[in-house]
Amino acid sequence: MAKVTFHGHATCSIETDDGTHLVIDPFFGENPPAFRERVTAAAEFSAENSFPAEPSHKPAPPLVWRHLSYQVHSGARNMALDHALADAIGAGHGNEGVVRLYGWERPTLSLGRNEPAAAYAIESMRGSGFDVVRRPTGGRAVLHDRELTYAVVAPIDGWGGVRAAYLRINHALAQALRSLGAPVDVASGTRSLAPDAGPCFQAPAAGEIVAAGRKLVGSAQARIGSALLQHGSILLEGDQGPLGGVDQSRVPSHGPIGLRELVGDVSIDEVAGAVAESLRTELGGRWGSGELDAVEREAADRLEAETYARDTWTWRR
Q: Smaller CB count within 10 Å for the chain: N or C?
């Protein structure tokens, strides 16, 4: 039986029967059995060790960063792209890192890898025009709609550990949001999370970005080969209310906060520009714009067709 340890309202770790450690939060989290020989989660967070509010500033690896500019895709394509990039970096793109910024073609409910789909009204969701995808990472359901989604992929070596990487990237995201006028903080300490908490964002976990005590950014990590993938959602509008219409067991008492609630009308381009600039400043190295190469594109096509676009994957639990 898997051992589950809760480390905050939004974050927990799972030690599976095969010894794999998975770190998850309500936005994102762990990995599929078919990939388990290649995919392990970043680390098991200790309930006794809370995150500091600031990263250690251990130098990140001196990488050549490729920035993939903002594009909009289906849920299945987005998950396939993140996975393909992590596969490529993990297979040995030595000193290269990738930052990808993206959006969603239509409102998309994403399920964590091992989250039971039985909690949701499948036909109701489809009838309401929702796209539904199951992530390669874990955690609980989140509705992707009015947000900027980011992914950072880089070799695991040199970060000073996965928690240091988590904080370093989140520090950069917080700085980007502050540059737009948002009064955000990086949460410290730990909070307890009930095992049946559902898609609830009332009490952000340590290390997460918050404003007015409410969650603004949800992120998670996975280790794929020798690569670290961290991806997450920066909410422009914080309404997760539609989840109450599809979750058959629990309705959140209140949701996260959106950036526009804090700073007024801000565009995707403005947020994407601020995030890219802050990551460049925080992570260092050499930066340039780029595209997927042929190998990455072929891998994404395969992962989309064989996994993320299939009902047998989406509704497997």
A: N
φ/ψ of 131, rounded to 5, equals -85, 150
Please state the separation of Cα 281 from the chain's center in Å: 21
DSSP string, 155-207: ESTTSSSHHHHHHHHHHHHHHHHHHTT---EE--B-----TT--S--SSPPTT
Q: pTM for the whole thing?
A: 0.79
Tokens of residue 33, six digits? 């059995």
In contact, 61 and 154? CB cutoff 8 Å: yes
Q: What is the pLDDT along the chain (317 residues), one digit of tens a residue?
A: 444 443 333 444 444 444 433 444 434 434 433 444 344 443 322 223 344 455 555 555 578 999 999 999 999 999 999 999 999 998 876 689 999 999 999 999 888 878 888 777 767 777 778 899 998 877 778 889 999 999 999 998 878 788 889 899 999 999 999 999 999 998 876 554 444 444 434 456 778 899 988 889 988 788 888 888 898 999 998 766 555 555 545 444 556 899 999 999 999 999 999 999 999 999 999 999 999 999 999 999 999 999 999 989 988 88
Q: What is the CATH number of domain 3-314?
A: 3.30.930.10
Query: Residues near 90 by Cβ (< 8 Å), separated by ≥ 6?
Result: 38, 223, 224, 225, 226, 227
Q: Which residues are catalytic?
A: 200
The SS3 assignment for 257 reads: coil
N-to-C CA span, the chain: 17
Closest CA to 153 of 256, 52, 49, 299: 299
Whether 12 and 138 have beta carbons less than 8 Å apart is answered as: no
The domain segmentation of the chain, as residue ranges, is 3-314
